[in-house]
C-alpha cells in the first residue's frame, strides 16, 4: 500500500474537492430567488394555472424567470443541460396534449396556434417547410386525431405557389360543423401580406375551398402593418379573430426619416359564419387594441391611465360601443415598464408597480368586479438592489 | 486487480514530475494574475481620481466596477488552464508512443507482463482520468483562494462580489464545471469515451502502421457517427420524432456503445495484433 501513497492522496483530494463543490452547488440551487403572491382580497382559486414571466435583476445579474402562481419560481437563464431537456417551453395545454396523446404529438411543431381540441377531436395543422436551393416549398401538414377510435387522418396539401409567396404560417385552427378551417398568414414575394382561410372536409379529407380575407400591399415608402389578435395560447374553438391594419409612411423630418401612421382599420372575422366586419375605432384607442379580448361577442379594450385602467366594451353583433368601466389602482406608480396588462378568458390581469413592490390585480371583464388582489413578494434575494420586470402573464 | 493497480501506479509515476510542474505553473501564474489585474485596476482608478478629481464612487459610475470575472476571463487564469488541457491532450498520444521510442523498446517488456494486456489499456485510461480530475480539483481549490486575494486587494467600492459558484458558472469556466454532479459524470464520461476512442485509433496505427492510420481514421469516423446518430436522425429523417428526454437517453446509450466498442476493439488489437 505504501508505494501507492501519491496516487491515493491525489484521488482522495480530488474526490473530496469535487464532491464538496457539487454539494455546495446543489444547496445553492435550492436557494434561488422565489416569487410569492400574498393575497389581499379575492379568491386564491384565480391563481390556478397562471404563470408570470419576467426578468429579475439583482446586483449586475439579470435572470429570466417563470413563476407558476400556485407553485414555484423557475429561473430560466443558465439552465444546466439536463434542465434544458426537461424544461417545457410550451404552454400547459400543449403539455397536457403530449401527456394524453404521446404518439400523436410526436414530431409536431408545438405552438398552440397549430392545434385545436374539442371533446371528440384533436387537430394539428402546421406548415412544412422544405428548404430548396433558392426557394422554400411549403405544404400543410394536417393530422386529425379521433379521440374515441384513436384513428389519425392526414390531409396533405401542397402550397406550391412559391413564386408568389415567401412565407406561410397558420395562425388559427378551427372546426365548424365537421369542416376544418385554417386561417393562414402569408407574405408575398413582391411585398405585402395576405390572410387566407382554407376550408377542408374532414370526413372526405378534401380541400373545399380557399378564401382571401385580407391583403396588404407595400409601396415605395409606405407599407401596411398587419396584426392578428387572438388568444394565442388557447387551443379551443375561438369564434372571432381580430385583424388590425395600419398604413405607415416614411416621412422626412429635419433630415431624419420617421414613421408616421396615415390610416388604420380594425376588422373582426367570425369563423362560424365566415363574415368579416369592420369596427370603427377612434384614433386614440387604436393602439390599445393590442390589449383587448373578445368574450361572448363583446370586445373589451383596456388602456392604462394615471391611476388605473380603463376598459371599454364593444358589441360585435350590434356594432355598438358600450359603457366604460374604470379599474382603480390607487397605488400605481407610473414609470418604465411599470404596468403589464393582459386580457384573457374573460378576465383582466394586471401587474403593476407601487412604492413598495409589485401588485397583481385580476378582474372580471363582464361584471367589472375585482376577483383577486395581492402583492408579489420576492424572497431569497441575495443583494440589496433589485429590479423586477413582468412582461407576460398566461 | 493488483496488476492493474500496479500498472496505474507505474503510469502515474511516469508523468508525475511534469504533472507537478503543471500544477506549480498554474498556481504561480494564476495567483500573480490576480495580483497584477487588481493592481492595474487600482492604479487606473487612482490616476483617474487624481487627474480628473473624481471621488471613488464617481469613478465606479464612469468606468465600472471590477469583478472577479475580469480576472477569470483574462489569460492569467485561462492561459494555465489551456496549457494544462493541451498538455494532457498531447499526453493521450504520448502515453502510448513513449513505450515505442527510446533505445530499448519498452513496449516489449510491458506486453510480456503476466497479465491480461487489456489492463495496460485500462491503466493508461485511468491515469489520464486521474490527471484530468486532479487539475479540475486544483482549479476548484484555487478559485476561492484567488477570490479572497482579490477581495483583500480591492476595496469594497470598486468591487462586485461573486461567489465561487457564480464564477464557475461564467462562460469558459462553466465548460470545466458542469452545473450538477449528474452532468459532471455525463460530461467527463463522454470525454473519457473520446479518450478511449483515440487510444483504440492509436492501437490501429501501432498494429498496422501506415495502413493502420487509415483504419484508425475510419474507425473514429464510424464511432463519431454512432455517437451523433440520434441527433442526426432527429434533425433529418425523423423530423423531431423524439421528445427531448428520449433523445438524452438515446445519446447516453450511443455513448455507451462507442465506449464499449472502443474497449472491445482495443482489447482485440492489443491482444492479437499489436506490433512491438
Automatic annotation (TrEMBL), chain A:
Which SUPFAM superfamilies does the record match to this protein?
DPP6 N-terminal domain-like
Q: What is this protein called?
A: Uncharacterized protein
From TrEMBL, chain B:
Q: Which UniProt keywords apply?
A: Membrane, Transmembrane, Transmembrane helix
Q: Which residues cross the membrane?
A: 16-36, 76-97, 118-143, 181-204, 213-235, 247-270
What name has this protein been given in UniProt?
ABC-2 family transporter protein
User: Which organism is this protein's natural source?
Assistant: Robertmurraya kyonggiensis
